[in-house]
Amino acid sequence: MLRIDAEISGRPIPVISWAKDGKEIEAKARFEISSTLTSTTLIVRDAIRRDSGQYVLTLQNVAGTRSLAVNCKVLDRPGPSAGPLEVTGLTAEKCTLTWGPPQENGGAEIHAPSVPCPLTKAEDPLFLPSPPAKPKIIDSSKTSITLSWNKPLFDGGSPVTGYMVEYRNTTDDDWTLGVSNTKSTEFTVVGLTSGAEYVFVVRSINKIGPSEPSPETDPQIAKDREDEPIFLISSNLKIEIPLTGKPQPKVSLSKDGQVLKSTMRFNSDVTTDSLIIYLRESVASDAGRYDITASNSSGTTKSFVNIVVLDRPSPPVGPVEMCDVTEDSVSLKWLPPAYDGGSPITNYIVFKRETTTANWVEVSSAVARCTIKIMKLINGVEYQFRIRAENRFGISDHIDSPTVTVTTVGPVTCVDTYGAPEIEFPPEYLDVVKYKAGATVHLKIGIIAKPQPTIEWYKDGKELDRILWSIISEKLEDCIVTVPRLIKGNEYIFRVRGVNKYGVGDPLESRPVIAQNSFGKEKF
Fold first, then answer.
1. Coil, strand or helix: which one is 51?
2. Sign of the dihedral defined by the CA atoms of residues 361, 366, 371, 372, in that order
3. PROSITE patterns of this UniProt entry (predicted)?
4. Could you give the CA distance from residue 227 to residue 188 in angstroms, rounded to a whole number?
5. Top-level CATH class of 317-405?
6. The CATH number of 2-72 is which of 2.60.40.10, 3.40.390.30, 1.20.1090.10, 1.10.10.10?
7. 202 — phi, psi (to 5°)?
8. How far apart are CA 224 and CA 88, in angstroms?
9. Domain ranges of the chain
10. CA 470 to CA 397: how far, in whole Å?
């Protein structure tokens, strides 16, 4: 809000008028003029940058005319950097970006570092690759175990040429090399001892060498693989497991380290050739690993069976974290349910309520991840939030957040008038858009909004993961920067924003560019 106060006097009482840029200001919309016998006030609500300028107060009566000018400046974040954003000096490892300064600096100089950064020698940035994520056991036999893994997230600046697989018996500390270099992301380790339990790790290999080991796999016994029993909630379970031994072994069952005793719901029978487990009216807590110990005078053998009970998931795990609280929004974070009900979590459902009422209002039923930014809250109102998880068997019980009051944090600067976002669909998107299998899909949608809106993409009602942007530099003196450590063959998009002490401007974005040896230059 812009406010100008002035004391006045005159006989007879003068006629008061305010003007800007030679035009008289009328009291309407955002402009308000109030006057008394001794003072006058001009108020400009929701001031924007174009409200800067010279305001002239004029007093007039039969005795004459008197005017007074006041210069006002409205401070704001800078406008977008001037384009085009040019990419030059493009090679397989680096490129140079050039752009123009913002046409509007928001009333303050664009930030620049006080001391230039030291020179850095240009060289090929090569590192060890990151390890693959935790490998998965996909098959087993009495003498072999097959595992698979995904490619590492970071190749170290040099292509990954292969993978190293190591394993050990869970009773030993020494690791054995399964294979020194395989190009596949799947490998079968052979020559294992039947009935022994093993864990495995995988290392990525590039030009520099092997990475750190991946996380260990879950322990796996070398035995013929059997599908784990799967049952619906509230059903009766009967599991028959082959069992041999002379003399006939004694069998004990345990779960989560606790020996299981026969009850009205759970019991087991041992026959001459099998172990039969009965579980009546199954519940979600019955799911998990059941350890089996069989022993006789000749020795002891251990095994296990995993039971999956299909049910709705357990509630999300709290506590619910709240961050980035503003005058009209708050961000929530939580953890996935401890038990997914034997089926992947498809989405989360988030509710809100004002603490002055008991009514819950749905915010979204298509939250794909364990985080959400809730917008359009009322400044100064206290809220509580509720979260449920959903899979194909149903919706979980809820978890509630602590209460939070949305409020302005720190000083509020004058900003341009807000407007609801508008989406402009190209005519070709009004029908089915067809692409060949394997092609890269580009959907370009026009969006008009101020301030910049939060953008979410959904497919089949589920939110898609967002693209992550990496910061090249937060402080640049000139409108040019060289971006090192690009990966040959990868496609990149660059953004530039102007920054002053009042905030960050809207971005100027380049078109996609592929890192490769290039002659000449290309403009975007």
1. helix
2. negative
3. FN3 (PS50853), IG_LIKE (PS50835)
4. 19
5. mainly beta
6. 2.60.40.10
7. -130, 140
8. 59
9. 2-72, 78-113+412-524, 136-221, 230-310, 317-405
10. 38
CATH (residue range 230-310): 2.60.40.10
Q: Which residue bears the tokens 């920067």? A: 481
Into which CATH architecture does domain 136-221 fall?
A: Sandwich (2.60)
Question: Which residues of the chain are modeled with pLDDT < 50?
Answer: 113-122, 410-417, 466, 519-524
What's at 510, amino acid-wise? S
d(CA 291, CA 303): 6
Sequential DSSP letters for 142-199: SS-EEEE-PPPS--TTS---EEEEEEEETT----EEEEEEESSSEEEE-SPPTT-EEE
CATH fourth-level superfamily of 78-113+412-524: Immunoglobulins (2.60.40.10)
8 A C-beta contact, residue 86 and residue 97 = yes
pTM for this structure? 0.35
How buried is 184 (Cβ within 10 angstroms: 0-12 exposed, 13-18 middle, 19+ buried)?
Answer: exposed
